[in-house]
TrEMBL record:
Identification of the protein by name: EGF-like domain-containing protein
Keyword terms, alphabetized: Disulfide bond, EGF-like domain, Repeat, Signal
Coiled coil: none
Gene3D superfamilies attached to this UniProt entry: Laminin
Keyword Signal part of the UniProt annotation: yes
Domain EGF-like: 86-124
Region (Disordered) location: 171-196
Source taxon at top rank: Eukaryota
Classification of source organism: Eukaryota, Metazoa, Cnidaria, Anthozoa, Hexacorallia
Cysteines joined through disulfide linkages: 95-112, 114-123
Length: 247
């Protein structure tokens, strides 16, 4: 995808200088250009040191910082070595909350890899799962969730008892009340329980023994369910669905 494609531009080489203290890769290469390619393939690489080796080969050192990076030391002298850095938008530290900036991605020239608990382009947004701030940071497929989140418990419109949910917003694939001004009781244009799709959260860590969800009833597990993904494997919740709201 476009977000996974990388484009980098190397600046003019600096002779007899090296970056130290930020080594992330060391390999022997047959040609100078091979080190450039290895840096391109390593998302965290923003500069390289090149030096002579045995048999006409070259020592290639990959660094995760350049001399323009905040807090990085000045280049040190080393005879017969060459230092090259890339044009690096990450030098302005655009990522917040300890996010890792990787240069050469997206139309901005960088991307932020957010730590657990944060999401968004710049890792500014904390991950919350109560939907009070929308579903930004969630990955959506299909049409089932195009009108989500839903405002209000709306028990009268749903002909159900109150779900006693936390907050004012929740996810309902059949509902179509994406704002407070929209009337309660409107349904998805494809009809109740018919739209298909998925909604996947950002990564999170379970710090206790249990994790619980408030899930609406009235559907079979083949129609609607919650899945927990651990190490890229789906762990299906053994939830019993019936005609009542279940916690």
């Amino acid at each position: 995808t476009g977000e996974e494609c990388r484009s980098i531009v190397f600046k003019e080489p600096i002779q007899d200088k090296v970056m130290v203290g930020h080594l992330i890769g060391l390999v022997e290469v047959p040609r100078l250009g091979s080190c450039n390619v290895l840096c391109y393939m390593e998302p965290d690489c923003v500069s390289i040191n090149l030096g002579p080796s045995q048999g006409g080969n070259y020592i290639c050192e990959l660094n995760n910082a350049s001399h323009e990076s905040p807090g990085s030391p000045v280049l040190q002298s080393k005879q017969d070595y060459t230092h090259l850095s890339i044009e690096n938008p990450c030098s302005s530290s655009p990522c917040f909350n300890n996010g890792t900036c990787q240069a050469g991605y997206t139309d901005k020239g960088f991307r932020c890899k957010c730590p657990s608990g944060f999401t968004g382009v710049y890792c500014k947004k904390s991950c919350s799962f109560d939907f009070e701030d929308g579903i930004g940071g969630w990955e959506r497929t299909g049409t089932a969730f195009i009108h989500q989140p839903t405002f209000g418990d709306n028990p009268a419109a749903r002909n159900r008892e109150s779900a006693q949910q936390q907050g004012d917003w929740w996810i309902g694939g059949a509902e179509n009340r994406p704002s407070e001004s929209d009337p309660a009781g409107h349904l998805h244009q494809e009809g109740p329980d018919r739209p298909q799709g998925s909604l996947t959260s950002a990564y999170f860590r379970i710090v206790g023994r249990d994790i619980s969800f408030l899930i609406g009833g009235g559907c079979t597990i083949n129609d609607i369910r919650a899945e927990l993904i651990v190490e890229n494997k789906v762990r299906l919740f053994n939830v019993s669905f019936d005609s009542f709201e279940t916690a």
